[in-house]
Amino acid sequence: MMMRFGDGIGRKAALTLGIVLLGLALAACGGRKAAPAQEPTAAPPTSAPAETAPAETPAEAAPAAETPAATPKAQPESPLARAPESPLAQPNVSPLATSTSVPRVETAPGTGAVTGVLLVRSEQGEVPVAGMIIAVADALTSTENAGAIAAFRYRAQESPQTNTGENGFFVISNVPPGRYGLVLDLVATSYILRKPGVNEDLVITVEPDAQVDLGPLVYNELPLPTDSQ
What we know:
single chain, alpha+beta, Immunoglobulin-like, 4-stranded mixed β-sheet, 10 strands, 28% strand
C-alpha cells in the first residue's frame, strides 16, 4: 500500500495539535491557584458596648487545697491576760471561805480532839488571832440539875491546851471524854469564851476517839494584848 505524503503530514499536525491542547489543558488545571477564602469580617461596633462575660476568678475555679496558713492559729492565752483578783478586793471575806476540810487529828486511844479557828473583827475584816493559848475547862454540873452547867474549872497546868496558828486554827488533842468550856489563856488571866453573837455558854462534848470541830469562832472583840491585835 502506498501512503500519501499529504496524509502523513496531516496526521503529524493533528497529533501535535492534540499534544499541545492536552498540555494547555493540564497547565490550566495544575497552575490555577484556588482563590483565598475570605475571612468573615467583624460587624462594626455599635454605640452600646458589647456585654462580656466576667473573667474567671480563682474563687470560681477549682478550690485549692487548704493549707495551715489559710487559717490563722489561735494564739494561746497569756497568763497575764487575766490578772488574779487581789485578796484585798473583799477585805471582809473570812479566810475560811476557801479553806480545806479539817484534817483528821490523831489522838491517844480513848480520847478525842477539839478543833476550830479563832477570829476577831476589825477594820480590816475578820483577823485571825494567832499565838494565843486555847484550852478546855471542865464543865461543872449543878447539884440541883445534873444536866445544867453551873461553872467551868480551868487548871492551867493540867487542862488540855494548845496555841493558835497564824490563821487562828487550833487543835486540842488527847482530850478525855466529857463536857468542857473553851478558855482563852492570856497567862496573866484567862477568859471563858461564849458562843459568838449570843449570850450562851459554849459547851463542848467530847467522846472517845472522836473529833469535835467548832469551825470559825468570830468575835466582835476579845480581851487581847494590844500588840496581838
